[in-house]
Design a protein that fits this description.
Helix content: 25-40%
Number of strands: 6
Shape: globular
Length: 133
Amino acid sequence: MSSKSKAKGTAAEREVVNYLKNWWPTAERRALSGNKDKGDVAGIPGVVVEVKAAQRQELAKWQRETLTERRNADAAQCVLVVKRAYKPVKEWDAYLPWDVIGAGGAEGWARMDLQLAVSFLLFPSLLSSPTTA
C-alpha cells in the first residue's frame, strides 16, 4: 500500500469517526492490531466498523474481512463503510449483513447510506420481529 493510499484511508476513517461521535462520543480510530484485526473504529460497544476509501471496489473481499473482524471482536453487529467521492460522509455507502438488520437467517448484505445505517445500529431492538407471548 502506498503512503498516498494509506493517507486516503486514514482520512476516511477520521471522517467516519467524527460523524459517529455524534452518537458515540467515545468513538475513535483503532490502532492496528495485526492478524486479529477488529475493525477501524473503537469505542462503539458490540459494533465493528470497517472503512474503505479505495478507487477500485472489492466488495466481496471487504465484506469477508468485515465479518472476520466481527468474529475477532466477538461483536454482535458490523458495518462496512465505503467512501463515495464528492459526497458528505453521511451519504457514503454502508453495508450491513442481513442478520444485523433483522432478516433472520438470510445471508447477504443490505446497502444504504451511513446515516440510515447508524439508525439500525442505534436501535437494533426496533428491527427484531415481535415475539408472541
